[in-house]
Amino acid sequence: VEPKVFIYDNYPGGIGFSRPLFDMHALLLERTRDLIDGCPCDSGCPSCVGPEGNTGPNAKRVASQILAQLLAEAV
Which of 34, 8, 36 is nearest to 22 (CA)? Predict the structure, then answer.
């Protein structure tokens, strides 16, 4: 299974975010990975990977790995 990210406008007719976000997706993935890797927590927290209790003990490492794989495929 290959990781995928879907970006869509959840507004009838859209508000125009999908295309610009797609055009800069590599930068968004890179900055997201930097945010996660730079967070001082050990295994993931609400500031980097999401709400506590929904992330698991390896969430930070796994999220960073998924983003790295997506970035490798983006270039």
Answer: 8
Asked whether the beta carbons of 70 and 33 are under 8 A apart, the reply is: no
Residues 6 or more apart whose CB falls under 8 angstroms from that of 2 comprise 73
- Report the distance separating Cα 64 and Cα 44, nearest Å: 10
| Per-run averaged pLDDT (10 residues), the chain, 75 residues | 71 85 91 95 89 80 92 81
Query: What residues contact residue 11 under an 8 Å CB cut-off, 6+ apart?
Result: none
How far apart CA 65 and CA 37 sit, in angstroms, is 10
Indicate the pTM of the whole model. Answer: 0.76
Going by C-alpha positions, the residue among 61, 35, 66, 31 that lies closest to residue 48 is 35
What are the boundaries of each domain within the chain?
26-74
